[in-house]
């Protein structure tokens, strides 16, 4: 029987912070989070929300998806069951559907998602609306997506998105930002 582990993002945060030669205080200042809270995260005594994890990722010049991927062991075959909530953020709104450090990343967003930040990825990204509705602003145009619709964003396209239906389920699939490390 498979057992799922809760992702432990602390070691990935610590490795990234140390690689950048930053102190907890510097990451705290950049992220707006306290040093004691960051210490608890790094020591896996606290589990950050997806919002806090993204603030940490921004402070470390990476993404929350990359930190999550770096925190989990890579598996050659991995089944993520529909009821597996071990990877959910504290609000229960974001669930990884691909675990580990792979070329492909996929997250399922459930419920409300606000367009409070802009994204721009090096590689392509696909968004699929499983339920509900979404508005995506990309390259200065607004795209309305409903159940069953998908949107491909080529690498380098600035975009932001939000759900317009509280019952939305959105799958976001992207090529990992770490690929340049694999090819060298």
UniProtKB/TrEMBL annotation:
PANTHER family: HTH-TYPE TRANSCRIPTIONAL REGULATOR, METHYLPHOSPHONATE SYNTHASE. It comes from Streptomyces gulbargensis. The keyword Cell division does not apply. This is XRE family transcriptional regulator. PROSITE patterns: HTH_CROC1. CDD domains: HTH_XRE. Gene3D superfamilies: Jelly Rolls, lambda repressor-like DNA-binding domains. Pfam families: Cupin_2 (PF07883), HTH_3 (PF01381). It comes from the Bacteria. InterPro entries: Cro/C1-type_HTH, Cupin_2, Lambda_DNA-bd_dom_sf, RmlC-like_jellyroll, RmlC_Cupin_sf, TransReg_Diox_bact_type. Keywords: DNA-binding. SMART domains: HTH_XRE. Residues 13-67 form the HTH cro/C1-type domain.
